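User: Hi! I'm working on a homework problem where we have to compare a predicted structure to a textbook description. Could you give me the structure for the chain below?
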Amino acid sequence: MSPVPQTMRAIIKPDRSPGLKMVELPVPRPGPREALIKVAATSICGTDLHIFKWDPWAQSRIRPPVIVGHEFCGHVVEVGEVVDEVRVGDFVSAESHIICHTCAPCRTGRGHLCQNTQIIGVDRDGCWADYIVMPAENLWRNPPDMSLEVASLQENFGNAVHTAFATDVTARRVLVTGCGPVGLMAILVARAAGARAIYATDISNYRLQLARTMGADLALNVSEVDAYQLIMAATDGEGVDVLMEMSGAPQAVDLGFRLLRFGGEAAMLGLAPAAIPFDLNNHVVLKGATVYGIVGRELWATWYRMRGLLAGDTIDLRRVITHRFALADYEKALRVMQSGQSGKVVMFPEGVPTG
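Assistant: Happy to help. Predicted structure tokens:
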């Protein structure tokens, strides 16, 4: 393995304004319980778009300057003196939520709800760089033959897996509202888990077509058709058993709960842009609905579920990837992601692999 250089390229949020910037920075050094990883691939998440655009959420959360990005894979090149979880040369992905281990959720086995979570690329330096330092306990060893792009998607895939397995979707009618990359992956999971029927809604015909290729039985553009009437007709007037809300759009939340049958279950991953009006009485209380708020990935139960789903090609995440860029072309990659005319977008520090 090549010697670690003194400096590296990194994409940062330099100040409190729209945009990002690629700069040269010192390569970070790992502490006693940390590892240094050479980044091999990194994918773009909706959070990265919020930071790029510098919207109200980013303004309230980000403290520039910070290296952005939180989905990646790479190879361990250096470890701290008390690290035994990984070794130099290991091919790893990472759980982006760094937890405290001392708050009440952490101490009761619910680390994904840690009250003091630090997220890489948000609260501390992230992975859109040649190298990143991570706590060794946050690293997940991959099979050596796993493709770089699939390995980089696992953190984001975990959101879809956590959402889908919050309920039992087997032999049930499932509605996915929002067909961004996580929504598309949720369709793959629901199909693999044996859903009876899968319905999908969005406002992008491009992403709805992707939803059909992922296994959606009916994919509807809510700006063009009466999705409520069409899905109610498809379910013989019963509605859906399970709602997976992935968009955070107020109209999608309302539609999803109107379509949810009495006694149905809703798993909510999408984040609304602000507080939204919601008919609690009719959507939840009088309907006897069960609602799950989904935060990140259950540590580490979701990762083990992912391993099982990805083993033996039960799910092929490459189907969700539509665009690949060199890390140096990050602005082009972000514009593609922002356009809505894409699935998952992956970037490679050393250039897009050939073959």
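For your comparison, note the following. The CA atoms of residues 109 and 205 lie 41 Å apart. The chain has two domains: 7-156+298-348, 167-293. Good luck with the assignment!
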